Amino acid sequence: MSPHSPADAPAIELKGISKAFGPVQANKDISMRVMPGTIHGIIGENGAGKSTLMSILYGFYKADAGEVFISGKKTEIPDSQAAIRAGIGMVFQHFKLVQNFTVLENVILGAEDGGLLRPSLAKARGVLKQLAAEYELSVDPDTQVQHLSVGHQQRVEILKALYREADILILDEPTGVLTPAEADHLFRILDNLRAEGKTIILITHKLREIMEITDTVSVMRRGEMTATVKTAETSPEQLAELMVGRKVLLRVDKTPAKPGAKVLEVENLRLVDDKGVERLRGIDLEVRAGEILGIAGVAGNGQSELLEVLGGYATATGTVRVNGAAMPLSGPGSDGQSRRACGIAHVPEDRQHEGLIMPYTAWENTAFGYHRDPALQKGLLMDNAAIRADAAAKMDRFDVRPPDPTLAARNFSGGNQQKIVLAREIERNPDILLVGQPTRGVDIGAIEFIHQQIVRLRDAGKAILLVSVELDEIFSLSDRIAVMFDGRIMGVRDPAETDQTELGLLMAGITEKPDRPLIDAVDAKLDAKEAREAGHG
Amino acid sequence: MDRMPNWADAVLVPLISLLLAAILSAGVILAIGESPVDAFSLMVEGALMRSAGWGYTLYYATNFIFTGLAVSVAFHARLFNIGGEGQAMLGGLGVALVCLYIPWPHWSLAIVAGAVGAALFGALWALVPAYLQAKRGSHIVITTIMFNFIAAALLNYVLVNLLRPVGAMDPATARFPDAVHLPTFQDMFSTAATPLFRGAPANVSFFLALLACGLVWLLIWRTRLGYEIRAFGHSDSAARYAGISPVRITVVTMLISGGLAGMMAVNTTMGEAERLVMNATEGAGFIGIAVALMGRNHPIGVLLAAILFGFLYQGGAELALWTNIPRELIVVIQALVILFTGALDNMVRMPLERAFLAGRKRRA
Q1: A405 neighbors A392 (Cβ within 8 angstroms)
Q2: If you ran DSSP here, which 8-state letter would residue A276 be given?
Q3: φ and ψ of A364, to 5 deg
Q4: What long-range pairs does B165-172 form, CB within 8 A, spacing at least 24?
Q5: CA of B63, closest CA in chain A: separation in Å?
Q6: What transmembrane ranges does the database entry give (chain A) (predicted)?
Q7: Which of A256, A346, A387, B39 has the least C-beta neighbours within 10 A?
Q8: Which of A448, A506, A2 is nearest to A243 (CA)?
Q9: Which residues of A touch B242 (CB under 8 A)?
């Protein structure tokens, strides 16, 4: 074979790709080779430039410099149509599906063969059937997308790409919204695709996934590609170090909990959202002083609503007792101010839209939520000097960088923003700390620090309710684990006596051994949930 | 960081926008066969070179300060109060009732009561749209616009049927008693030897407007309420998280906004006309939107922008008086200023920002 024959040319080769957004260099001189028939992982922290790179490959952005070769041939990709013609398919983190179209209609959308739909639909039906058999990619072609579970919707996205005859598939953080069982199934699909000679690029921030499925992995840091290694020849520790640029501790050091009195008791908590869908369907739980109760579950199973009710900005029915005293769940006394007065502090899931006012300075943010504290007032005015001094001290203790209280919150990195929120809530010395997704979008270096602070608060005898979609985080922090699915607690487990598999099944709503193949049981549960939420259950 | 310095944002951008508007206006004046240089010097001459001109410019500016502040305060809570016009009309009613039905011994007491009456009526007129927005989600832009029409109709009814003196032909109240006459600039600053501000309507209300600027600044940047208003304006989800009630903030902010708009009536009704007439507001409620946009919702910016628009108003009146340039063209020029400083803001800002960043990179 000649050296330029397609067979041994890389499926994708990038040479010297650079892209700047204003003063920010998102990609700096990136070169990468992906061999055909392999799964290539790209790993890096938020803002490392992974998504920008893939957007260039898919024609969303134009690179400032550099070349793209597809199967050895130099290719210009000015738009996504060109990318599709070059055989590239993309599965976005946020799906691009028309909710009230059927699967079939979504698949042919933009790839119709003519003015009339019927022939295209018939053809697509045949192709889907074949793909389903080939890759374990079965989805009912006549169901409306809004009635499908998230995992099934993702399959539709993959089918869309395959229907357009993609040879190269890019998946952007594909497991973020999946249950572990669904993620396993996705990996089997990817395995099958690889076996058929497809090339797959997997973008993720989860080290475990990289180790599990990829052949090679490229690490990005601050817009540069710092290393490309064979997965078999590396370790999670080494990858973490490459991502962050220094050694990091992946496990949390903590002593066994010494649980005390019941601080937070929740009974039969129910919440119906404004669309009339019941999001919390009778939650019972308790958190004791000096323990961390971790709530595991896939996003969208009622965890956010649980935090909102406890934090005082969603109304519900049922009973919530703090230190034995019942709290109003609607009407006067159920707002965030009353909750704070009862000793509940809350690090919300979405720090950019809830925890912080992004245009406010860091010092203004350190008072947010506690700004009515009389200690922060001077007569009719706010005592800004006192707030500023207090902010500087907090930022110092929580190692916020840069330590400049006059900088707007949006100018801090995700990890430092989270430290500002954490400092504000923890330093109020609350009885209960609600923490949602404490390390989402936070760089690995800061994760370590944030976890230490949460454990430190537990050791000070406080009750902590932790919600996270990252099972690793749940495992390493929690003293007890409650699993939520579809607005209910499916079970509470001791982390020492359970494993990812058991929790994974609970996260899909399966409490006992099913009498049929596992993935089918999971699918059935998830589809039922989706249908209930769409109002057809 | 990745932004241009504040002074450039606050000063350079509006100045360049203004320059562009001026150039385009000059083109329009050229197109109808008049000389832009002559026109401009006439405007400056008439509005700024004589004390009487200033007397008119500052009189208009007083109105625009109040309505501009009204729009600014609401905008800090991301509420677009288009109802300044109607709120100011109702403010006029408040002033008239205070002046006509309570015997005042001295103007200094009357102006305080008049301001309170105006603010009260203006605030009440903003209350309904605020409540509908907060509780029912009815968009405040729509409801405040509708309330402008209702205000005009209501005022018409009240003037014609209730307050018009017996036998009078025009829809206006009786003249206010002499005791509530507010000192004009002429009263205050003229001496026998040097008459100043002769015949100009500017009056002591201008200082009330300056006071309002200071109070709004304190409110927005130094009080707890201002902190909550701004927080709510930036992110209502974060405000909910912090336990800030959206209903309360919406209603309170709109009350303050409506009150400020209403207080404009102290200037027009008490200070100038000395009776309540139809259409006393003359569109100042709408100019307030432009003033707030141009003034970046900051009291100092509002003050400067209000003076600029006062100049445009007075200069425009001079043009209409002394040249063949029709009055409508003045409206065109004002519209161009609004267009460039408000709507097309980014057209100037983005190239300027790029230029700044490029300059910084070169230096680095």
Answers
A1: yes
A2: S
A3: -65, -35
A4: B170/B277, B170/B278, B171/B277, B171/B278, B172/B275, B172/B276, B172/B277, B172/B278
A5: 28
A6: none
A7: A256
A8: A448
A9: 336-337, 368-369, 371
- DSSP 8-state code for residue A378: E
Contacts of B1 in chain A (CB under 8 A): 407, 411
Give the residue among A72, A66, A74 at the shortest CA–CA distance from A29.
A66
Decide if A12-244 and A262-357+430-532 have a common fold. yes
Task: Report how many helices (DSSP H) and strands (DSSP E) chain B contains, helices first.
Answer: 16, 0
Judge whether A14 and A31 are in contact, CB under 8 Å: yes
pLDDT for the residue numbered A9: 87
Considering chain B, tell me which residue range(s) the CATH 1.10.3470 domain(s) occupy.
57-315
Instruction: Give the helix/strand (H/E) hosting B216.
Output: helix B205-222
Residue ranges of alpha helices (H) inside A408-537 are 414-426, 444-459, 471-477, 500-507, 518-533
The span from the CA of B274 to the CA of B295, in Å, is 30
Element (H, E) at A18: strand A12-21
- B336-359: pLDDT as tens digits: 888 887 777 778 888 888 888 777
Write down the domain spans for chain A: 12-244, 262-357+430-532
For the packed helices B51-76 and B299-322, what is the interaxial angle rounded to 10 degrees?
140
pTM of the entire structure?
A: 0.85
Which residues in chain A are closer than 8 Å to B236, comparing Cβ atoms?
Answer: none
pLDDT tens column, A400-435: 988 999 999 998 888 899 999 999 999 999 999 999
Structure tokens at A387: 């707030």
pLDDT average, residue stretch A358-387: 95
∠ at Cα B35 (B31, B41), nearest 5°?
Answer: 135
* Cα gap A299→A440, rounded to integer Å: 12
The pLDDT of residue A2 is 39
pLDDT computed for residue A249 by the predictor: 67
Helices and strands counted in chain A (H then E): 17, 22
SS3 B277: strand
Partners of residue B234 in chain A, C-beta under 8 Å: 357-360
Please identify, in words, the CATH class of the domain defined by A262-357+430-532: alpha beta
Pairing of strands A432-436, A344-347: parallel
The DSSP 8-state label assigned to residue A296 in this structure reads E
Per-residue pLDDT tens over the stretch A4-24: 444 578 999 999 999 988 777
Phi, psi values for residue A88, rounded to 5°:
-105, 130
SS3 of A434, please?
Answer: strand
DSSP 8-class letter at A93 = S
Which residues are CB-contacts of A512 (< 8 A; sequence separation ≥ 6)? none
* Integer-rounded Cα radius of gyration of chain B: 21
B227 to A23: CB separation less than 8 angstroms, yes or no? no
| CATH code for the domain defined by A12-244 | 3.40.50.300
Interface probe with B: pick from A25, A334, A363, A372, most Cβ of B within 10 Å = A372
* ipTM, 2 dp: 0.87
Amino acid letter, B360: R
**A207: confidence class by pLDDT, cuts 50, 70, 90:** confident
* Order of strands, sheet of A199-204, starting from the edge strand that comes earlier in the sequence: A88-91, A168-172, A199-204, A39-44, A216-221, A224-230
Res. A536: pLDDT tops 70: no
Q: Is A274 exposed, middle or buried (CB count within 10 Å of its CB: 0-12, 13-18, 19+)?
A: exposed
Rounded to the nearest angstrom, the minimum Cα separation between A376 and chain B is: 9
Calpha distance A248→A270 (Å, rounded) = 41
Give the residues of chain B that fall short of pLDDT 70.
Answer: 1-3, 361, 364
Task: Annotate B308-337 with DSSP letters as a single string.
Answer: HHHHHHHHHHHHHHHSS--HHHHHHHHHHH
> Rounded to 5 degrees, what angle do the CA atoms A333, A336, A342 make?
65
